[in-house]
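Sample pair:
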Amino acid sequence: MVWLYVGLFIASFMLRVLGLPSWTQILLFALFSVGIFYKLLYPLFFSRNASVIMEYLKKSRNPHYQFVYHFFAGNLDQAEKKIQKVKSKQLKIMDQVLLSTKKMEYSEAKSFLSDLKESDYKWYYRAVIAAAEGDEEEYETNKSKLKDSTFLSFLQIEEMFKSGKEKEALALVEHEVKRLRGVKLLTVTHYQEELLAR
């Protein structure tokens, strides 16, 4: 990462020494910004390769990303330790909800959800918990509030799977794998593995 900054400094210095117009420096900074974006954010949001995303998460120093890495790697104890280091209150709650739901500790997950802002994430996990507990009315209420197509697809896949339409559910999962990128792709591939293991 440091080599990008050193390269920018040297290139900027050379442009000044050569007396080139100032628009060349603007172009240089624009290219530098694109390079930083690609290096820091591309794998997380746009990559279509789950192993590249996992490697990015593994190397990250961000506690939330470390949590996500350990969660998807199946290291739930390590993931739980990383939650304590997450500074953002909302992200910490989201991580706790995810972990509690994975462990099937639904009452604990509900208590965390009550502290979460109204969002698709909150409604999705309320619907997931309601489905697990067999509360059809609560499930439909929260499902109707969802706007995120990925969350809606996950609920639809789960409904298909529970009603015995495993092939259709897996076909929809495969469609989502082809459509999604970044961490959402990682989520759907993890979900696909869980469905195949059932």
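The chain has a mean pLDDT of 90.
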